[in-house]
Amino acid sequence: MARIGTREVLGIGEESEQVEFKEQFTPRAGPTLVAFANARGGKLYLGVSDAGRVVGVEDINKLKSDIQHLVSNCQPSITVTMRKETLTSSSSKPILVVSVQEGENKPYAYNNVCFTREGTSTKAMRPTEIIALAEQSERIKFDRGVCKKFDYHKHFDKNKLQLFLKKAGLPACGDEKEVMATLDNLEVLSKAKSKAHPVFNNAGVLFFAKDLHKIFQHTEVACASYKNEEKTFIIDAELFNSDLIANVEGAMQFLRKNLRLEYHFVVGQLQRQEVLEIPEDALREALINAVTHRDYLHDGASTVVEIYTNRIEISNIGALPRGLDSKDFGKRSVPRNRLLAELMHRAKVC
To answer: Which residues of the chain have pLDDT under 50?
Structure first.
């Protein structure tokens, strides 16, 4: 009698990154399901040999229960769907197809170990791979991450806090107790804070560090003006790395200094109006977006403002935030650094 394999019946081909065959259920299926969630999703065929021969499974209901128990040991929880299939007329035994979608909260772990797919194999992930996957999934948020380099007593600038409160239309702080309460309300202190040694998150550092360049180098805004349409001759350049608000204001001053002005005269008014060749509101919005929504987890580059004779380029590092596509431009807003955006809005910089 001719053998009919799964690939002949369902057209699924051989085992691959998204397809796994197992003759019977064992706890070793846990890493496979987690690996699917960490990769591009996949299907586990229980009751099928590595060669594609249908052997079937017994007691489907118990098998489903065992799989649900196994899934409960995944962190965070993953969702699976299970479907009974009878593949051939020559076998009365069914198989169970367990489907896993690509996860939205990577990385996933089984019994505290993260797994991924590599070809037809399931392998444990190295720490560097786990970190990279978490960054790609934006599970790690820079703005709320703790800054271990920041020492409150050495690096905190109370004057910057007072200026922020003034911009936000909030009352100034008086004693240390009020300062702590205000910083707590602004959500720039980590949960590990203490009265003696407050611990700042990165958002707090970006706004209230006395010397930001001593903490972070990649937070600077690098500005350059060129003589022509290429990067062949620089006529002006400046770096700004004081705090997030001052960086925006410094870059705006650089733009005003290096862009052409038009002078408009209004009938009945003696004073002329100076208008930049590119609307200042558009420049400010682009600059604020660049410094607020850049990917600060990548510390190899700065926000860059470049002025050419025929254009201005304002760029930052990082792909689009997860959940945002280029077709959504002008329709949806997906902030990468929500706390930074909220602080900029409160300070009325946006």
So the answer is: 1-4, 6
Distance between CA atoms of residues 271 and 304, nearest Å: 35
**Of residues 282, 287, 312, the one with CA closest to residue 302:** 287
- How many Å apart are CA 56 and CA 61, to the nearest integer? 14
pLDDT value for 202:
93
130 φ/ψ sector (left φ>0, alpha ψ -120 to 50, else beta): alpha
Alpha helix ranges (H) inside 106-148? 127-136
* pLDDT given for residue 6 in this prediction: 46
In terms of C-beta distances under 8 Å and separation of at least 24 residues, what long-range contacts does 345-348 make, across chains too?
A: 346/168, 346/186, 347/164, 347/167, 347/168, 347/245, 348/167, 348/168, 348/169
Tokens at residue 77, please?
């929880």
Return the C-alpha torsion angle 56, 61, 65, 68, nearest 10. 70
Residue type, 331: K
Secondary structure of the chain: what % helix, strand, coil (to 5)? 30, 20, 45
Q: How many CB atoms lie within 10 A of CB 182?
A: 18
pTM: 0.63
Task: Round to whole Å and give the CA distance between 37 and 133.
Answer: 12
* Lookup: tokens for 107: 């990385």
Handedness of CA 223, 334, 101, 123 (dihedral sign): positive
Hey, how many other C-beta atoms are within 10 angstroms of the C-beta on 200? 26
Alpha helices in the chain (DSSP H): 6-10, 29-38, 60-71, 127-136, 152-155, 158-168, 176-185, 202-208, 244-258, 280-292, 338-346
SS3 342: helix
pLDDT tens, position by position, 18-43: 999 998 888 889 999 999 999 989 99
pLDDT tens track for 90-149? 556 789 999 999 887 889 999 999 999 998 899 999 988 888 787 677 666 889 888 888
Per-residue pLDDT at 50: 83
Sign (positive/negative) of CA torsion 102, 107, 113, 117?
Answer: positive
Q: How far apart are CA 130 and CA 108, in angstroms?
A: 9
Reading the block at residue 190, the tokens are 């980590």
